[in-house]
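Handout, section B. The chain below has 137 residues.
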Amino acid sequence: MKPIHLLLADDDQEDCELFSEILGELEPETQLTMVHDGVQLLQTLHNSDTDLPDVVFLDLNMPRKSGFECLEEIKENSRLKHIPIIIFSSSFDPITAEKLLQNGARNYICKPSGYSQLKHVISNAVEYIVKQTTADL
């Protein structure tokens, strides 16, 4: 099985490092691409030389273009709209979460504060993506 390709869009460098560290501890093998703002995310996705990710973990509050704007643009693009988007935010508001899910996000995860909880959340998300990927085969 080929590595699961995850794209993390998050402007918090510490969160990115933790995410990467945790992925290194998990099975199956993963490939991680990181971008640090919404403009970089969309440039990466629109780059025809780049393989599309199996999933995007999207922070909502990023510079240059918010996660809200990115989700909208991704879901309006016929080449990109099939990519599962998991909102990965430090805050949780049920009304916002519902709106994002209605607009095409696959899931909304509030970043836990502890390492073991974060590892559990990321592990569950990766397992979900593996199941979705193998179901599509």
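Note. The chain is about 45% helix and 20% strand. Compare this with the example in section A.
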